Each structure stands twice: as C-alpha cells, then as structure tokens.
Amino acid sequence: MIEFQGVTVTYPGADRATLSAVDLTVDEGELCLVAGKTGAGKSTLLGAVNGLVPHFTGGRLAGRVVVAGLDTRDHKPRDFAAVVGVVGQDPLAGFVTDTVEEELAYVMEQLAVPPDVMRKRVEETLDLLGIAELRHRPLRTLSGGQQQRVAIGSVLTAHPRVLVLDEPTSALDPTAAEDVLAAITRLVHDLGVTVLVAEHRMERVAHFADRMLYLTGDGSVVSGTPREVMAVSEVAPPVVELGRLAGWSPLPLSVRDARRVAHGLRDRLAGLARPASAPSTADPALTARGVVVRYGTLVAVRGLDLDLAPGRIVAVMGRNGSGKSSLLWALQGSGPRQAGAVSVGGADPADLKPRVARGLVGLVPQTPTDLLYLDTVRAECAQADQESHSEPGTCRALLDRLAPGIPDERHPRDLSEGQRLALVLAVQLAAAPRIVLLDEPTRGLDYEAKRHLAAILAELTREGRAVVVSTHDVEFVADVADRVVVLAEGEIVADGPTADVVVSSPAFAPQVAKVLHPLEWLTVGEVARALEERP
Amino acid sequence: MTLSVEPTRAVRSWYRLPRAVHPAAWWLWALGMAVTASRTTNPVLLAMVLAVVAFVVVNRRGDAPWAFAFRLYVYLGAAVVVMRVLFRVLLGGPQGEHVLLVLPVIPLPEVAAGIQLLGPFTLEELLGGFYDGLRLATMLICVGAANALANPKRMLKGLPSALYEVGAAVVVALSVAPQLAESVLRVKRARRLRGGGQRGMRALHGIIIPVLSDAMDRSLALAAAMDVRGYGRSGDVPTALRRTTGALVVAGLLGVCVGVYGLMDGTTRAFGVPLLLAGLVVAGTGFLLGGRNVTKSAYRPDRWRAADVVVAACGIAAAAVLYLTSSVDAANLYPSLSPLRWPQLAPLPASGVLVGLLPAWIAPPPPSTAEAHR
C-alpha cells in the first residue's frame, strides 16, 4: 500500500538528511506505529506519504514514495485527498469550516462527490465516530477529544485507503485520548484502513499494531513487529521498561500482557516498602483561601483552598476545562481572581506590580512562546536580566544549567520544544521566585525531554522552591510529584500524596501501578532501586 | 392501500416544518425594508419600519451566536440619531423660528466664515436632525436584521462557483479574526508575567511578534490541511478561461452596483436601468462560464422554496410601494419643517410597510439547535 524506495529527505540549511535511504513497505490494512525521539523525522516520514514533504514543506526528496499506485513525484498533496487522510496534532488549526457537519463534508465537496452520497457518508461517519449528537455544534465549542474525532471524521468521509495521524492525542487529557485511540483502533478493525500513527502513548497502540517503525535519529528507520522493535527502541513506554528490568520474555506490550506475567515480580516486591517522601513540616510558601475565578457566568475556580509547601512538587490534574490554568494564573496574580486571598510571605501577588509579583511567583504559561519576542537567545537572556534587575548573565547561567549547549545566536523559534521550555523557565527563574508554576509543560515533549524536565524540577525543589505542575501526563506525575491535586469543575476532588491519589484511579494510574496492583509502586525507577537494594 | 391525506394539508404541514430560510431571501427582504426606509423621513413610517423589522427578527431568529447581533445594531442606530442631533446643535445655522434654547455663539476665525458654532437652537433643527438620523438608523437596523436572521457564512456558500475562491478566502478571514483577537489577549496577559514594564514601541514589539508568528504558524497549518483535503483541485482549468471568467464577473458586478445606484438615486434614472441590465448580462455570462468548470459539489445547499421566494417578495413589495408613492404623492413621505407640520400617515405607504411584516408568520420557524447544545 505504501512503499518507500531509497527515500532521502534533506531540508535546506540542514547539515544532514532527516531521512536517509529509507526503504520500507506497509501492507494494506496494517496498523503501523511510528516512534522516535522529537526531531528524529517522524513528521517528515508521515508528511512524505501524501507528498506534503516536499511539495508543501520544501526540501529535497530523493527516491520514490508510492501510495496506492500514485507516485508523490507526479502528484500533489491535493491529488491524494481521496487516497490519504491526514490528521495533525492540533485539530483546531486544520478546521476550514465552522460546524461539525460542514467540516465532515468539506473534503467531499472538493472531490465533487454527488450530494446524495455526501449526505449518506456524513451520517455514517457521524455514527462511526460517535459524534452524531454534535452534528450542528460550532467546532470551537467542542472539547479537545471531540475536535480530534471530528478531524478524523473529516478525512474519513473521502473514504481514504490510508490514514496518517501525527500525534493525535498529544494535547488531550487521558480520557479524551482514550476515546480517540479507541476510535482509531475501531477503524482499523471495521474498515480495514491502513493506518500510520505517530503516538507517544505507545502502549495504547502497540499491542494492536501490526508493524512498528522506529526512527533512530540518524536518518534510518527500523521496521518490524512491535515486539522486535521495542526490544531495541530507545523510547519505550514504562510497561516495556518494566519488562526489560524484570527480564520478561516475550516483552509485554500492554498492561494486560504485563499483568499476566507479573506474579513473580509482585511477590518479590511484596515485602519491600516504597520510598515515600515525608510530609513537609515547614511553613507553607504560599497559602490560598477561597479563590474564585469566573468568566461571566462560567465559574472556573470555585472557592478553592491550597497550601504549597517549600521544596515539594504538586501536580494539578483534571480534564481540560476543569480550572487548572485559571487556578495557576490566579495564584500568580496576573490572571483574574474575583474573591479569596493569596498570601506569599504575607503579600498578595495580585496587589503588587507585575514586576514585583514575578519575584514572588513565577509562571510558565501553556504556550511558552508567548513570552519570547526577541531574535536571539542572547537577547532574550539579556532582556530577562534587565527585567528582573539581576546580575547580567544570570539568565544565561540558569539556561546552561537547565539545558546546556544552546548557542547564543539561535533564534528562539528554532529551538526544540524542550529547549524553548528551558529558555522560558530560565527567563522566569531570573527573577528568583520562591514559587514556580508550570502550566502543562509536558505538552509535546518526548520521553527523554520529560526525564530532563523531571530532573530540572527536582533541582528546583532541592533549592527549597515550591513547584506546581499542571499536566495530563500520569507517568510524569508518578515520576516527579510529591502530591497530587485533582480538580473537577473548579473544585478539588482529590488531594493527597501521589500514590494515594493515582493508584486507585482508573484514569490517573500510571502503568507500573496498573501492572503491580495492589502494590503501590508508581515508576520503573522506584522498582529498580528497590530491587537493587534488596535483590 | 394508498395514503389518503388531503393534499393541501400535507403541503401546509410540510411548509411549516422548521428550517433555515435561504440567507439570500432574508437579505433581499431586509434590503427591501432598508430601501423602504430610505424613501421617507416621516418618523411615523420609520417607526413602523423599525417595529416591523424588530418583530420579524424576534419571531424568526435562531439561537445561533450571530442572531444576537441585532441588539448591537439597535444601539448603533440610537447612537446615530443622537450624533445627528448633536451635530445640528453644534453646527446648525439659524433656521426656523421656534427657538428652544439660546446658546452662546462661539466666534470662529475669518477662514471659517459661514460656519456657526452653537448659537440659537430651534425646533426645526432638532426635528431635521432627528428625522435624518432616524432614517439612517432604520436602514442600519434593517441590515442588522439580515445579519441576525441569516448565517453570514451560509450566505457565502451560496455564491456562484465562479466566486468560490473569493468566498473561501472570506470564510478563512472570518475565522482568523477571532483567533487573532484571542492570541492578542493571551500574549498581552503573558507579557505581565515578564514584568510588562516596557512602554510604547518596545511593548508593542513584545505583543506583535508572538501574535504574528502564531498567526503565521496557524495559516500554514490551515493551508496544509486544505491542501491535503483536496482544495484547489480545479487547477486544471486553463488560466486564460479562469481570468476571463473573473474579469467578466467583476466588471458585471460593478455595472450592477452603478446601475442600482443610478436607479436609487432617482435623479439619473436614465443610465440606471441600461447599466443594471448590461451588468447583469455580463456577470451572468461570467457565472455561466465559470460554472461550466465546476469540479466541486455542495453539501446540503440552501434551496429556494416557496417560502423563501415569498419572504424575499415581501421586502421587495414594501420597497416598490414606497417607490411608487414617492412619485405619486411625496408630501406625506417628507414631512414639512417650514412651516412645521405634524407628520401625516397616508394609508398607501403604511400598508406597504406592513407587507414587510408578513414573513413573521409566513417564513418557516428556525430549526432549534438547543438540543444539540444540551
């Protein structure tokens, strides 16, 4: 169905090829998982399937890509509309019309499908993806998971033979991501569509996948069954890492597989105590009482109390729209707050000038690039030093600690997601706040970048700072957080040490906890350390 | 067994089914009402037009966001009336004899001879300003009614295929505008996180750069999404033909605009009709040429059914009646200010305006989207 013959892609100005001499074949009806670190060329590989690379992105493609008999050399992306459906990371960015039904019909209108066929296909697709009740809704009012399902529907109506999905769940909360992935697996089974999906929640797809493509980062691609490829892949979900640690063979790809072989490990761990951080006895660095944030009639945060202990990491979880961002902005003092009190050492950051408030509480917003506006990393750092009245070079020194080796002259837009996050964090830390808030920092980060971020956060707490992270990423939470606060409709529905909160929850439990249930172990690292100490 | 339903009843119940009326029908009706208002300064007639338009809007608007734009137009109309009167107070020369208020005259330099600031303010001036303002406000509110009743984007969908590209560009622009506003707010808020100390150009720089690069990213993502979904597949139409079509359509529409202006103006009716007809022919040729190369189809296009034709006809009829009365008996339409007279209401123009009220019952009720929002 999809054939790459000696494909080499080079972008202008790049010192090496993003893909080099890639040969691979994906057969009809296969579900194919594409994995690799950020920047390894996943998007390039996916884009090459329908000719977006190089027709749209620029660059040079040598070799041949043939999909369903069409060669991308002779056909433009628009000619592939009936053959290849493409769904991106941010569904909202790709919507052309403004209601669900019209969006589903758009591709068929372009293909001049007769009106009666269109009507029928729209109805079928609405049912297939379970979005029939949303048919008249404006697209902007849908939740992230609904939008992503509409985006999938909007390419399915053309009856494509190949579906290409580039990290379709990266912006979604765990439950919405489940919905989308469930929809994708149903498509593979019911319609026999060939699916290529880049997905960082690999474990959700890996056991359905017929093939896995692993991009090693040097331009080559390893192709094989998920089990074969997982054994050599550097990026692997926790369940696979646990399998490697315990020496299970064959390697389990899903929580279900792992649970069935985990008796031995559970018995070994049964007598061991999980290292738990002692509750903090220090005075809270920040106290918030009765915080209310509302936008008109919509109440985002409903009278919430929160204490932040110095030297601890608190994770704020909850679905999209549960008030996480509003809470962080209100705590920082820059966002709206209609009632309640926030006190940082006796001062309320909302009453202070922004310049003073950021010295007390630093916030890294959801789109960190909003804070960057200069041409070079050097200029941004210098500006940050000036803004926070700190010694020249402070910000640069912080940046070198967070993410070493970023060239001074690099444009902030050209940095990787992880580097950009580090730069913004360094800019905010230049003001030396005792409290650091991060709004969804794990978005778009791969396993390695997340590990690095975890190390950075651990270091911040060692300096005695209080850290709050809002995130959907349960594995990241299991790894870094001392305490988890779960929000729903602007209220706290669960608050306690990480293990107590996440282990019992079906949506928030990390994979290791699911495998080792009822034992309360959260991460592979913990298990490894425990086994080392008492083999 | 055959179904024995009385045919007229079947038709009637089908006709009454809730559905969206063709957007062009609402626009024709609203423009008809606007033309009606433009033919008179009689406050009683204008008040009738306002009442008719408001009644139809309240009766037949849906619950979509744009349906609530009507209130904004009413506020805008009120502002127009107030401004008009205030300007008369400020600049009005000495007219009429019913002085209401004597204000001091502000002396102006020699250059501005002929303009008088303030000074005595007469009832004639007040009414003149009020009538004029009310007429303008009524026309504005008629346009507002069209906006409230018809989905502006559906209107663009109804464009002939020769204008498809223009329509697509407008739709994209319409959806980009709120996104741009959103990103400006977001970035402005984020600026506070960095202290937000700068003023002037530097602060502007800090907002514009992130907003524009964000907009750029979005546009590229949208362009890619449109490309992979087959937008622009009609590229195989010969360039020469495409250009000819475009030129014909644009020239034709210009002709139509000038023709309509000539017709409305009333003073130069001679060139109005021929130009209008010529424009229609040229534009029509363009549409036909363009339509021959259609490689697209439309999903659930709005259709002209009996009700839609009637709605449009009501507006046009109202305009036509006023048009006719103005050439027969203009006195009632423009109440005299010197000497001052009470405005009179003649039966003919009044019944004309009332024709515009019919869509409040004749048009099928709007479909409810409330259940979808639940």
From TrEMBL, chain A:
It is a peripheral membrane protein. GO terms for cellular component: ATP-binding cassette (ABC) transporter complex. Signal peptide: none annotated. One of its GO terms (molecular function) is ATP hydrolysis activity. It comes from the Bacteria. Its main location: membrane. Residues 2-242, 286-514 form the ABC transporter domain. InterPro entries: AAA+_ATPase, ABC_transporter-like_ATP-bd, ABC_transporter-like_CS, ABC_transpr_CbiO/EcfA_su, ECF_ABC_transporter_ATP-bd, P-loop_NTPase. CDD domains: ABC_cobalt_CbiO_domain1. Pfam families: ABC_tran (PF00005). It is found in: Cell membrane. Belongs to the ABC transporter superfamily. Probably part of an ABC transporter complex. Responsible for energy coupling to the transport system. This is Energy-coupling factor transport system ATP-binding protein. It comes from Umezawaea tangerina.
Automatic annotation (TrEMBL), chain B:
The keyword Membrane applies. Its main location: membrane. It is found in: Membrane. Keywords: Membrane, Transmembrane, Transmembrane helix. The chain crosses the membrane at residues 44-62, 68-87, 99-121, 133-150, 162-181, 246-264, 270-294, 306-325. InterPro entries: ABC/ECF_trnsptr_transmembrane. GO terms for cellular component: plasma membrane. It is a multi-pass membrane protein. This is Energy-coupling factor transport system permease protein. It comes from Umezawaea tangerina.
